[in-house]
Write a structure and sequence with these properties.
Elements (H helix, E strand, L loop, with lengths): L9 E9 L5 E10 L4 E5 L6 H8 L13 E4 L2 E5 L2 E2 L3 H7 E4 L11 H7 L17 H13 L15 H14 L4 E5 L7 H16 L3 E5 L3 H7 L2 E6 L2 E6 L1 H6 L4 H12 L1
Parallel strand pairs: 3-9, 3-10, 7-8, 8-9
Antiparallel strand pairs: 1-2, 1-4, 4-5, 5-6, 10-11
Helix pairs in contact: 3-5, 4-5, 5-6
The protein binds adenosine-5'-diphosphate and magnesium ion (MG).
Adenosine-5'-diphosphate (ADP) binds next to helix 1.
Length: about 260
């Protein structure tokens, strides 16, 4: 990690987002991630988790004016008052974002999909492998080895299981050598038996001390690997703290109810 401990890696200050259809998704959210910190974002469906991740990744902007708040990543402002203010493509290169859907190109090899991560944009596919150096291919192979699927490098992505596809998507993000990782429900699209292989990879990344913000419905993973947990309710932070407190002694009745519902899910 190249940044200093004192500077937050991600700083979201008072962000509000109302969609054009009038739906208020974020209602004044502030969060902060320090280098090496692993933060879990939990909450019911529709509470605003993905909207927050998308704001940090610079994929959407907050409300115009004071209502929009401010977001800084690696100390550089990326949006303020509902306007992108930084170099978003630069920020995206430094942040690895992993979604529920793996977004691999099925007919291309796993290796090519992972190499695409280095471009920071969708490439023109014809001859794409030619654009990469031996070193870059080595890095992509290392990323695949890191998530335990190096043996699949030459297969088409379409031939992988769901768990392997998600691991390939993680390798694609790692291939950029990101300084922080954002995950949005990385295991939600997987069958329970495949979920664990992805959870294992995420746990290992957390143990390496990577800076990670992870939206998850998996309360066991959240309590096992996070340093800090944030419970979002209707676009507001209802409760946050260490996992022992949030899962062991939640104060908010809404959080208690939410945790009950996940036990029976
Ligand atoms: P979560 O990820 O916690 O399930 P989201 O961030 O996806 O929640 O959504 C928060 C709220 O914003 C929901 O009520 C959702 O329907 C609404 N919403 C999300 N995206 C859009 C959009 N593009 N247009 C309108 N409403 C949206
Ligand atoms: Mg979501």
């Amino acid at each position: 990690m190249s940044h200093t401990q004192s500077q937050p890696v991600i700083q979201v200050t008072n962000v509000c987002k109302t969609f054009p259809n009038g739906r208020k998704a974020l209602d004044g959210v502030s969060i902060q991630l320090a280098a090496g910190e692993m933060v879990a974002l939990i909450g019911a469906s529709g509470s605003g988790k993905s909207t927050l991740i998308r704001h940090i990744g610079g994929l959407i902007v907050a409300n115009k004016g004071n209502d929009g708040g401010e977001i800084a990543v690696f100390g550089d402002q990326v949006q303020a008052g509902g306007r992108l203010t930084g170099d978003v493509s630069q920020v995206r290169r430094r942040l690895g974002v992993i979604f529920q859907q793996f977004n691999l190109v099925p007919r291309l090899t796993v290796l090519t999909n992972v190499l695409a991560g280095r471009l920071g944009r969708m490439p023109k596919w014809r001859g794409v492998l030619m654009q990469f150096s031996h070193l870059e291919k080595q890095r992509a192979m290392q990323a695949l080895a890191r998530v335990g699927i190096a043996a699949t490098a030459r297969q088409r992505a379409a031939t992988l299981s769901g768990g392997q596809q998600q691991r390939a998507a993680i390798a694609r993000a790692l291939c950029m050598e990101p300084e922080a990782l954002l995950f949005d429900e990385p295991t939600s699209a997987l069958d329970p038996e495949l979920e664990q292989e992805v959870v294992k990879v995420i746990k290992a990344l957390a143990e390496e001390g990577r800076t990670m913000l992870i939206v998850t419905h998996d309360m066991k993973m959240a309590s096992d690997v996070s340093d800090h947990v944030i419970f979002l309710h209707r676009g507001l932070i209802e409760e946050q703290g260490p996992p022992e407190t949030l899962f062991g002694a939640p104060k908010s009745e809404r959080l208690q109810g939410f945790l009950q519902s996940t036990v029976h899910a």
